[in-house]
Amino acid sequence: MNSPVVPQSANDARAALHETLQRQRRSARWHALEYLFWCLPVLAYFLFPGNYLLLSQIAITSLFALSLDLIFGYAGIISLGHAAFFGVGAYTVGLLGLRGMGDPLTGLLLAALFAAVLGFLSSFLVLRGSDLARLMVTLGVALMLYELANKFTRITGGVDGIPGIEIKPILGLFEFDMYGRVGYVYAVVVLFVLFWIARRIVHSPFGQSLRGIQMNAQRMPALGVPVHRRLVAVYTLGAAYAGVAGAVLAQTNQFVSLSVLGFENSADLLLILILGGTGRLYGGLIGAIVFIVAKHLLSDINPQYWQFWLGLALVLLVMFARGGILGTAAQWLRARRQRTQQRSQEGAA
Predict the structure, then answer these.
(1) What are phi and psi of 332, to 5 degrees?
(2) Residue 162: in which H helix or E strand, if any?
(3) Half-sphere exposure of 133 toward its Cβ, with a 13 Å CA cutoff?
(4) What pLDDT was estimated at residue 346?
(5) Which pLDDT belongs to residue 173?
(6) Fewest CB within 10 angstroms: 36, 69, 97, 197, which?
(7) Within 10 A of 61 (CB to CB), how many other CB atoms are there?
(8) What is the CATH number of the domain that holds 66?
């Protein structure tokens, strides 16, 4: 009995699908460089014992950048008001602490919840327009929250903020110390757990659909993808992540000020993500490390004009490395691999 003839186009489609699935499985695996990267926070703990507060700031900013990368790098939703969710998380912890509810894990959960609710409600406004409209809406939401926090001084403390937040020991065992040692370990653990979750999400079918929406949102409904619901979901998730980052900041500093809701916070975050590279998860982390370390060093060298040198470095990066640090490194490695393959093929010929 003769076997049915399979069209060549069908075979090609199966081969392409198989190759795509294999590529996704390979990208979902943890690579050696990733293990090496996560050894760096451990080494930093021992190598820089006098800089735990700075290291905590890097970890918190990395988580904040990760939250924006989920909505901008993977879903293409640009935002200039992401500090709104960060501030909601910080003020949630501050207000809980004033009422004697200073358990760190409870604060994280409630901060994520309130920030997610704000993200869910605002997403219906943000997702209605184009990129320019989204910039204006997100900026408007953040500015409104800033003014509300400034006006209701009885609740938020206004320009004085909320000092002396009472934070209980983590799990009843680890108390936040004045040197920032426990705070740094806590911030890194929270960052790693949420990064691991985000990594699972972006490599899942949900994450792949976000990639498709970013590339061509008009075609995705034909594949059965509910575009609007996916965008609402990822925007809500990114808001929750930002809320957790704000909560960790308030818990480690035991102080909340209006600056957490400020425009500068959102603008710096966007610069950090562009600096590291969007849509790569690690781009935001690397961007946060480079940005904060450069800011710290330049402000020590030249306190008056450090912003000029930092701005110049960012302009040069955008001009000559548009994919950010991580994107440029990936392009260089890809080009090098292709040259190596060409040489091997020429040698075999």
Answers:
(1) -65, -45
(2) strand 162-163
(3) 8
(4) 66
(5) 86
(6) 36
(7) 25
(8) 1.10.3470
Measure the CA–CA gap between 32 and 46, rounded to whole angstroms.
Answer: 22
Average pLDDT score over residue span 228-238: 95
Confirm whether 174 is domain-assigned: yes
Question: Which residues on adjacent β-strands are paired with residue 256?
Answer: 162
Structure tokens at 285: 């982390």
Domains identified in the chain, total number: 1
Beta bridge partners of 170: 174
In a domain, 193, yes or no: yes
pLDDT tens digits, 59-81: 999 999 999 999 999 998 999 99
**For residues 253 and 239, is the Cβ–Cβ distance under 8 A?**
no
- DSSP states of 193-255: HHHHHHHHHHTSHHHHHHHHHHH-TTTGGGGT--HHHHHHHHHHHHHHHHHHHHHHHHHHHSE
**Would you give the DSSP letter of residue 31?**
P
Tens digit of pLDDT for each residue in 197-215? 999 999 998 988 888 888 8
Residue 81 within a domain:
yes
Amino acid at 348: A
The torsion angles phi and psi of 157, rounded to 5 degrees, stand at 85, -5
Q: Are 208 and 21 in contact (CB under 8 A)?
A: no
CA distance 188 to 50: 17
3-state helix, strand, coil in the chain (%, to 5): 75, 0, 20
CA angle, 261 as apex, 101 and 158 as ends, to 5°?
Answer: 70
Q: Say what the pTM is.
A: 0.88
Q: Range of 48's domain? A: 32-288
Asked whether residue 344 is assigned to any structural domain, the reply reads no
